[in-house]
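ZP: hey, is the flavin mononucleotide complex queued? I don't see it on the tracker
AM: it wasn't, my bad. submitting now with these inputs:
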Amino acid sequence: MFLPSAVRLSRGVRGGVRGGVRRVHASSVLLEGRLNDMTPEDPAFMKRFGGAGAALPDFVEKWSPEMFRRCGVAGGVAASGALAAFGPSVPTLVGLGAVGAYWAIGLKDLAQERQALRRNFPVLCHLRYLAESVRPEIRQYFVESDMEAAPFSREHRSVAYQRAKGASDTLPLGTRRNVYEPGYEWANHSMWPTAVPEENTRVAMGDARNGCTQPYSAALLNVSGMSYGALSSNAVLALNHGAKLGGFYHNTGEGGISRFHREPGGDVVWNIGTGYFGCRTADGAFCEKMFADNARLPQVKMIEIKLSQGAKPAHGGLLPKEKITPEIAEARGLFGAALTQDCNSPACHSAFGNPCVRSPARAPWLVLSRLLLLTHSLTHSLTHSLTHSLTHSLTHSLL
Ligand SMILES: Cc1cc2nc3c(=O)[nH]c(=O)nc-3n(C[C@H](O)[C@H](O)[C@H](O)COP(=O)(O)O)c2cc1C
């Protein structure tokens, strides 16, 4: 009994919010009609509701190249008529200009062959593009809730901005969060508080009993690897300064140890990836001497060997030569011809292979073992943390 209406509706609806509104409207109309014991075919139904889809005239559906031409001709006649009747004035000239722009845009839409929407809905489709262009802002400023966005909600971001500006970040009296919702987590006061020993708040890396001459006590939260180059000098300076103030470490990311990592004096974990930045020869191979020199820097507390490119699997990363500044070249150990070429972080290491994929050209793992032994034997001692590297980066299993 309701099928014809439903079919007509779904054909008429092009999807999106407007379609959703029509569907909802139509179903509530049908429901109300049903409650009143009427069918859409009843004259009383038509009189009462004016047809299921009558609320929103679907002029978009009726729009076509032919309709565009007709409207253009009508607009042209109206604008020329107004000009003839009232003479040149701001309104008549603006009208004429609008009709000219309408034709120019529409004919361009019809002539192009890349976008079906522009060919089928000349001029009108630009309203959609306009709406789409402001959609993110409308969502962000009007629609999105303060706690919705991931990974950082507006509320989290506001706290960060307020603290950065030294403004108050606390709101007295209650919370706007739903503390009864499943999954809500909180810390309760303990009825029997105890003192938390310092060692419980740090993680010991390296053990003197196993020959580590300079074990490192790492904080639980540290700065994850983000290379200089991906981050600006000011960002690196700020992070390292924060690491110094907070007593945690700052992972360099694979872009080498820049002067900005060293200046503030915070602890550094040197991340070495496939590009061997900071320990590479001119042709991009691993350089033992540079490795030893940088590994001995007092600030370098641990070395992280990044086994493969987690963020760019199978491709590796590329820093275009135009972006290689003198500071980046210095941090990465690029010199000579390397300065005039794109800087490549290959997909895999050239100094060692995967034991599962045995290559006669390389002695698998020999170089890695050498690298680790070298790390281990350095006087500064680098509690090289292979485990740490594995958990941090890697996709390629050693097993
Ligand atoms: C700008 C940027 C640069 C990064 N550079 C590196 C890098 O050089 N080496 C690396 O191992 N990870 C790098 N990462 C990955 C981060 O260390 C981290 O693993 C990743 O962002 C996931 O952690 P998160 O969820 O806390 O952001 C980078 C991440 C970002 C956002």
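AM: back. The radius of gyration is 33 Å.
ZP: great, adding it to the tracker
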